[in-house]
TrEMBL record:
Record protein name field: DNA-binding stress protein
UniProt cross-references to PANTHER family, sorted A to Z: DNA PROTECTION DURING STARVATION PROTEIN (PTHR42932:SF3), GENERAL STRESS PROTEIN 20U (PTHR42932)
Residue span(s) of domain Ferritin/DPS: 11-149
Family label: Belongs to the Dps family.
InterPro entries: DPS_DNA-bd, DPS_DNA-bd_CS, Ferritin-like, Ferritin-like_SF, Ferritin_DPS_dom
Keywords noted in UniProt: Coiled coil, DNA-binding
Regions annotated as coiled coil: 101-128
Matching SUPFAM superfamilies: Ferritin-like
GO molecular function, one term: oxidoreductase activity, acting on metal ions
Provenance organism: Gemmatimonas aurantiaca (strain DSM 14586 / JCM 11422 / NBRC 100505 / T-27)
Length: 149
């Protein structure tokens, strides 16, 4: 693969990295600040999800490095690239869940865009990474939605 053929894949990886990191921070925020009758189950579920995201951002950034690109690594860069909005308030537990469902779906969509870019570049490793990310985010969205039923 040439550097030129990697550009769309690297761009999609950057978006996935920034979106995943923003979701990590938001999920960790909600883990710390959730209250109410669902506290125990949400506190535990949020911890599982942010812990998985911490490992995921490392894998995404390392894939970028394997392609010869540098990974964005600051809040300033992430804020320009992310599809997930940060949360500075303290929403109620059910609103936290709704927000995280939407955000999990946004990150899954960012991973789908990475699949498209990687397949066009015949980069199976990046496509495989993105496919695994879609699976995780779709499952997380389902688990979160289940708390709203």
């Amino acid at each position: 693969m040439t550097k030129k053929s990697n550009e769309p894949t690297v761009k999609a990886l950057s978006t996935l990295l920034a979106s995943s990191y923003t979701l990590y921070l938001k999920t960790h925020n909600f883990h710390w600040n959730v209250t109410g009758p669902m506290f125990n189950s949400l506190h535990a579920m949020f911890e599982v999800q942010y812990t998985e995201l911490a490992l995921a951002v490392d894998a995404v950034a390392e894939r970028m490095r394997a392609l010869g690109a540098f990974a964005p690594a600051s809040y300033t860069e992430f804020s320009k690239l992310t599809t997930v909005s940060e949360e500075t308030g303290r929403p109620e537990a059910t609103e936290m869940i709704r927000m995280l469902v939407a955000d999990q779906e946004l990150v899954a969509e960012a991973a789908r865009r990475l699949i498209e870019a990687a397949e066009a570049a015949r980069d199976q490793a990046s496509a495989d990474l993105a496919t695994r990310r879609v699976e995780v985010h779709e499952k997380n969205a389902w688990m979160l939605r289940s708390h709203l039923e």
